[in-house]
Specification:
globular, 25% strand
Length: 80
C-alpha cells in the first residue's frame, strides 16, 4: 500500500503487512538515515504496537513527523 504523507519531508510511505504484523516499510524521501532506522525498527512489529509508539510524535516546529505519518499509514493499511 502506498500512503502519501503530509507535513513532512517524505513524499511517500510504502507499507506491506502480513496480517497484523509489519512485513516491510519504505520511505521515499525524508531524512534517509532516520527513515531507514524507523523502517528497520518496526519490521516484524505488531501494527497496534507500532501505532501506539509513534502516533503523536512531532518533528521540530511541525505538528507531525515521519513516525507519526507512518502510524497514520499503518492505520489505513490495517483498515482502521
Amino acid at each position: 500500500m502506498e500512503f502519501i504523507p503530509s507535513g513532512v519531508c517524505s513524499r511517500a510511505i510504502h507499507v506491506e503487512l502480513d496480517g497484523d504484523t509489519i512485513k516491510n516499510v519504505e520511505f521515499v524521501g525524508g531524512c534517509n538515515g532516520n527513515t531507514q532506522g524507523i523502517a528497520s525498527l518496526v519490521r516484524g512489529m505488531k501494527v497496534d504496537d507500532a501505532i501506539s509508539r509513534m502516533e503523536g510524535i512531532t518533528c521540530g516546529y511541525k505538528s507531525t513527523s515521519c513516525p507519526d505519518q507512518l502510524a497514520t499509514a499503518l492505520k489505513k493499511a490495517a483498515g482502521y
